[in-house]
Amino acid sequence: MNAPFEQRLKAQALGIGFDLAGIARLGTVATHAAFTDWLAQGFHGEMDYLQRGAELRADTTRPEPEMRSAVVVALDYGGKQPDGPVARYARGDDYHRLMWDRLDALLAWVRSERGDEVRGRSYVDTGPILERELARQAGLGWTGKNTMLINPQLGSFFFIGALFLDMELEPDAPFEDDHCGTCTRCLDACPTQAFVAPRVMDARRCVSYLTIESRSAIPEEFHAAVGEHVYGCDICQDVCPWNVKFARELREPAFAARPALDGRSAGELATWLLSLDEAAYREAFRGSAMKRAKLGGLQRNAAAVLTARRS
């Protein structure tokens, strides 16, 4: 006898190369009120796209009409590599394309099982979806005090993606437990004190925001705290006991550090970035998630790092 379709679907997701897979029913998002309050307090900074899609995020059936269920997946990018001036997720190839390709392959399998008329839409942190809450609904983990989704067997060094389907699927049980307990290591370790409360981040103070999302100059008050960070920050994940215990070695070759980044200290990387012109930048960072900051942003970060090192 064949296993239930949902069980085979999740097994196929794991077989394609994802590390976690669960199913959620689409509908009203319980955390949307907290999200709109976060926006109202201005904690999103310059990320205006979050405000533009705010109402769509209230209900996961709104972004793509007629969708009913989501297969939510996670792909580990390794948390055991040494820390460095670039956050681990961005050292190799851009994760979006790799995850979209695998989600497309998963949709092709669904159609082979249920017919070509099945409609699907893949999301990898580019749509108006509160992905971490959707992943929690699919049973993949809980929201930690550092706002990251944490899985009790994997930690938090993973990307989240979702395949929306116009099919009614039996959902997995949501992850209801909170395993952070009284621990505050992530909150205490943040160099810019970006957490105004457990699970509430003022992005305007976050090193990742300051070095990636923001297009403005890094405020002088944060130069010392940004320190050796040229692009992104892993501190609140590094200190999490769930990562200390369960983070994995890097297994996906696409996420291995590209030669231009591998082994360079913060000072060496910053000096090299400041030497690049636009053509050299495009060549060095083709297919890299670091292109999000653009050459101007990377050179802004590099200058801040070198200034901090001299002070």
Structure description:
- With 311 residues, the chain is α+β, with helices and mostly antiparallel strands.
- It contains 13 helices and eight strands.
- The strands form three sheets. A four-stranded antiparallel beta sheet has the order 1-2-6-3, sandwiched between helices.
- Strand 7 and strand 8 form a beta hairpin.
- Helix 1 runs antiparallel to helix 4 and helix 11 (266-275) packs across helix 13 (294-310).
- The model has no long low-confidence stretch (mean pLDDT 96).
Topology at a glance:
Blueprint lengths: L4 H12 L3 E6 L6 H9 L7 H5 L16 E8 L18 H20 L5 E4 L7 H7 L4 E2 L5 E2 L7 E8 L19 H5 L5 E3 L2 E2 L5 H7 L9 H4 L8 H4 L2 H6 L19 H10 L2 H7 L9 H17 L1
Antiparallel strand pairs: 1-2, 2-6, 3-6, 4-5, 7-8
In short:
This protein is α+β, with helices and mostly antiparallel strands and about 300 residues long.
Give the helix/strand class: alpha+beta
Let me know the average pLDDT: 96
SSE pattern:
HEHHEHEHEEEHEEHHHHHHH
Quickly count the helices: 13
**Total of domains:** 2
Query: How many beta strands in the DSSP annotation?
Result: 8
Q: How much of the sequence is in beta strands?
A: 5-15%
Low-confidence stretches: none
C-alpha geometry: globular
Q: What value does the Rg take, in angstroms?
A: 20 Å
Helix content: 25-40%
